[in-house]
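JOB MANIFEST
job_type = single_chain_structure
chain_count = 1
residues = 328
[input]
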Amino acid sequence: MRTIALTPGEPAGIGPDLCVALAHAPPPGARIVVVGDPEVLAARARALGRPITVREWLPGHASAYPAAGTLDVAVARTAAPVAPGMLEPANARHVLETISVAVRGCEAGMFDALVTAPVHKGVINDAGLPFTGHTEMLAELTGTPQVVMMLVGGGLRVALATTHLPLAAVPAAITAPSLTRTLQILDAALRRDFGIARPRILVSGLNPHAGEGGHLGREEIDVISPVIATLRAAGIDLHGPLPADTLFNPERLQGCDAVLAMFHDQGLPVLKYASFGAGVNVTLGLPLIRTSVDHGTALDLAGSGRASDGSLREAVALAIELAGHRGA
């Protein structure tokens, strides 16, 4: 039985709604421990007309597997009252605290994996707490020099060479050392966590038509192709750089285990079109397993009963699967 830490994310968003949904239909094969405020979760359950029993979870204290309608909670209190759909900067530090507590629990062996519900970056920064995203925070908390963001869904695995950067900053961020390490992390994670003996990875170009022989940019010639050649010689099965506009056709994807796109909006629109509402975000390269939903806080749906829990359930299922591979 795996124990999975779940952070509810922004308390005014749909994260608590999703936790309530999991409580009423617990995923098989794991105990879910929500790191959050039990009063917020119980209040949201009442607002949804789906009351729950909240049990405080304490490390090392064995308890029966929760029945449907029961939620195990590692307590982290909000600083201010929570109203669905209404952002409160005073609770921003609480959101970051839940992530820190869950990470420490994973590092201490209390949790087998971490699943995160969506946070609201804007309100965290408005509270004076510099925050780029979950991926970057998890890297900092674990002392990991480089991580890789990958989304899984619709039969695809799409990793990113760069993540949350302005488009103008992307070319300078694609350096030979960074791209080399990204591909090494991706290959190692596919082997260790996904159980793929020899992953086949397609690598996109940065420019239209993969640079068209240098006429539309030289990044493919100067950086991407040499890195691919070096790593292929070291035994990593890489193919590219390929034009992004034709990379995702079914014939080219046949037998492919993952795609590396050069920037956020080059690869993710395709994957989200194929799997929105059921996609999973995975952070590769961490000493712990982390998966997440592929959507935002959906403030307009919070407390309405209309939020879909499909992506969260997929994230939990994938976390259980990856924990099994890593623990084997």
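[summary]
The domain at 1-144+288-328 is CATH 3.40.718.10 (Isopropylmalate Dehydrogenase).
The chain has a mean pLDDT of 95.
exit_status = 0
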